[in-house]
Amino acid sequence: MTIDNNQLSGWTENLQSTSQNQTCTLQKGSWPLFGVRCIDPPVLDSMKLKGVIKRHYYPGDRIDYECYRGYFYVWPYLLSATCEPNGSWSRIEEACLRKSCPDPKVKHGKVVAPNETFEWESEAHISCDEGYFLRGKPIIVCNLIGENVSWSDTIPHCEKIYCGQPPKIKHGKHTNSYRNIFEYNELITYSCDLSNGPDEYSLVGQSKLVCIEPNKWSSDPPLCKVVKCERPFLEHGIMVSGSREKFSYQSVVVFECLQGFYLNGSNLVFCGGNDTWEPEIPTCIKVFLPPPSFPSHTIIIFLKVMLKILQAKIGHGTIEWFKIGKGVQQGYVLMPCLFNFYEDHIMQNARLDESQAGIEIAEKSINNLRYADDTTLMVESEEELKSLLVKLKEESKKAGLKFNIQKTNILASGLTTSWQIEGVKVEAVTDFIFFSSKITVDSDCSHEIKMLAP
């Protein structure tokens, strides 16, 4: 058989042939499969073909791959594929991985990889532990430069937080004044000197400062100064609390208007650090319309002044002044009043003052009596009582309070059956104790008379 060997692979030349067409002898087992070809070499994410890509390949042909820029070879994966006799390519898998920047370890800090890797084009977010601050950029990027990878900036580091000596103040001093360096979260306390004059210095501002950032304290230093406010005057009103000869820093005054006038503004003011009353002194306005409701900001100012700082007495001395967090001590003298303020807000939202229900006393309808967390509702009929209870229950729930149904009783003339509230039975009683006084359904006062009798 003679054939042009440029058209057939797998043949060897017969060098003894003298004809123009060379004679090729087929090697054993290598007869070509006419018409079988491999096309479209496998496309991989991390590798590219080496050399010139052909339109098609014959069985036995091999193609070689190399890693893309920014990738590295992983042994023992193959970097080549072979055209199989059936026209398919031999199995080949990704043999290259993206290059990564070195792990940016930061002492006294934390490194977060948003992409969970430090491969090129990935970010590293760096922060410091408490008490340390970052020197450098908080975000660095792994960049590919040529065939190599490196971080976009020098890896930052964490340094310990120190503060220098806090500012000195006139007429005052601070603790540990002999030191020049303070560590993170260290606290210093300012105090005022004794005055040589008739008036003492008042410390205006924060007495305690904390080192929070490099050379930064938690607030500006306080001032030691003589604070004197002029005696307040309220036209058509009187000072019901706080009257004294001198009004120094944080002196509190409570006002009240004369009959026929109502208070416009806060009834409680205090002497501020600028020798002025805060908030502004109120005015008394002649009553032509019903007086406005009790301003809620008055209560807030009162509480801020009364509960801003406290001092505890131990033995024959007192401890340093300290700030109050939340709440009051059990049995605190203001607790009933504070609860009344809160409950008054609930009553107003429930519009009990607009309700026609109640008992007429001196031409005024009275439908509730309150002291601390005890509330008594007074109405003329069972229907009115149910209506008030529903309103009060809804508004109390909004304010985070709820009835103690187990301790709730109903005293009513002619009522013999009990009620159900939220599935709990509310007893109908014939008498109960109200602030040490026995109240009976038939208005019997004999019990009280016996208690008072000698």
TrEMBL record:
It comes from the Eukaryota. It is an enzyme of class 2 (transferase). Its EC number is 2.7.7.49. One of its GO terms (molecular function) is RNA-directed DNA polymerase activity. Pfam families: RVT_1, Sushi. Residues 36-98, 99-160, 161-226, 227-286 form the Sushi domain. CDD domains: CCP. Disulfide bonds join 257-284. Keywords: Disulfide bond, Repeat, Signal, Sushi. PROSITE patterns: SUSHI. InterPro entries: DNA/RNA_pol_sf, RT_dom, Sushi/SCR/CCP_sf, Sushi_SCR_CCP_dom. SMART domains: CCP. This is RNA-directed DNA polymerase. The lineage of its organism: Eukaryota, Metazoa, Chordata, Craniata, Vertebrata.
